[in-house]
Structure formats: C-alpha cells, structure tokens
C-alpha cells in the first residue's frame, strides 16, 4: 500500500493505522508511525509529535519499555515523510506537513541512490541532487512537472553529472 494505491485501498490503510488509538500502543514507533507516514494518514504527524513529547527521555531515546531497536521506527517515519522510493520511483516530501520547511541530505533510496532535497513549506526546491552509487536507472515523480531539477551523479563514472537513465514523471 502506498500513496499510489487506489483510493479505496488507501482509505483502508488510513483506517487501519488509526484503529483503536494505536498511536499510543507499545510498538507504535516501530509499527504504526512508519506505516502512517508511508500512506500519509490523516493526523499522523500530530500523533507522532504527541507521543515523542510523552516518551522522549533526556538523552533523546524514546522510552517504549522494550528493546532499543524497536524505537528506530521513530526515525523511519521521518525518513518516509521526507522521501519514499518503495513505489519504484522517488517521491519528495510526500507526508511532510505543508507550511513547514524541511531539508535533508544523504538519505538513501532503493537502487543505491543517495538523495538531498529541500522544501520551503509549499514547494520542493529545484536543486534536488541524487548520487547513484551503482549506476542504475532512476525514476522521479517530479514535483515541478516536466521541468527537471534533478542532477544525477554516477559514482561509477567518477561523479560526473549526467542524465542518462533518468526518467521524470509528472
């Protein structure tokens, strides 16, 4: 299930994430919040922030009463709000709250791509960069229409920027 899923399936995903106040359950950061970000479930950001306020310790670790690995979902939810690649293409800031600026550097995407992008709260900045570590093809869901603002650096070609193997979808 993803943002490209049919509306009926996306509605089921939203309902599943929100079922029975699952935001506060013991494994919410591992299970609920990454799933909610991937489908941009209504209200997920507010719930994520509320749970962080309630559970964040002074050393920056989320207290869920379980093992340390269970809390990495807190960062996976943020990564999925900033960038997704599980649909076979890059989608920038798919679940980031509108009106709130954000930027990231060195986020990894499927296919051995390393991505950097910025969002001013309304639009994705045109200077997105993608470094290809394996020289594979890349598809981008363009937030600018057909106006390509993506530079691809292929590590197998000495880091030179090129456009072969890049598809821009709108």
Describe the fold and architecture.
The chain has 170 residues and is α/β, with parallel strands linked by helices. Helices cover 26% and strands 25% of the residues. It has 4 helices and 10 strands, in the order H-H-H-H-E-E-E-E-E-E-E-E-E-E. The protein has helices spanning 7-18, 28-38, 44-55, 73-82; strands spanning 83-84, 91-92, 102-109, 113-119, 128-132, 138-141, 143-146, 150-154, 161-162, 166-169. A 5-stranded mixed beta sheet has the order 3-4-5-8-9, with no helix packed on it. Strands 1-2 form a two-stranded antiparallel ribbon. A two-stranded parallel sheet has the order 6-10. Strand 8 (150-154) and strand 9 form a beta hairpin. Helix 1 runs antiparallel to helix 2 and helix 2 packs parallel to helix 4.
Topology readout:
Blueprint: H1 7-18, H2 28-38, H3 44-55, H4 73-82, E1 83-84, E2 91-92, E3 102-109, E4 113-119, E5 128-132, E6 138-141, E7 143-146, E8 150-154, E9 161-162, E10 166-169
Parallel strand pairs: 5-8, 6-10
Antiparallel strand pairs: 1-2, 3-4, 4-5, 8-9
Helix pairs in contact: 1-2, 2-4
């Amino acid at each position: 299930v993803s943002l490209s899923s049919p509306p009926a399936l996306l509605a089921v995903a939203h309902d599943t994430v929100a079922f029975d106040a699952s935001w506060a359950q013991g494994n919410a950061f591992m299970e609920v919040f990454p799933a909610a970000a991937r489908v941009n479930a209504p209200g997920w950001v507010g719930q994520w922030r509320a749970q962080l306020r309630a559970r964040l310790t002074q050393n920056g670790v989320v207290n869920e009463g379980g093992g340390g690995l269970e809390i990495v979902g807190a960062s996976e939810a943020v990564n999925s709000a900033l960038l997704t690649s599980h649909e076979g293409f890059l989608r920038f800031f798919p679940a980031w709250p509108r009106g709130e600026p954000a930027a990231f550097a060195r986020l990894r995407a499927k296919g051995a791509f390393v991505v950097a992008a910025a969002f001013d709260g309304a639009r994705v900045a045109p200077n997105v960069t993608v470094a290809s570590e394996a020289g594979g093809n890349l598809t981008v869901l363009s937030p600018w229409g057909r106006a390509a603002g993506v530079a691809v650096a292929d590590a197998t070609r000495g880091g030179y920027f090129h456009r072969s193997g890049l598809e821009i979808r709108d």
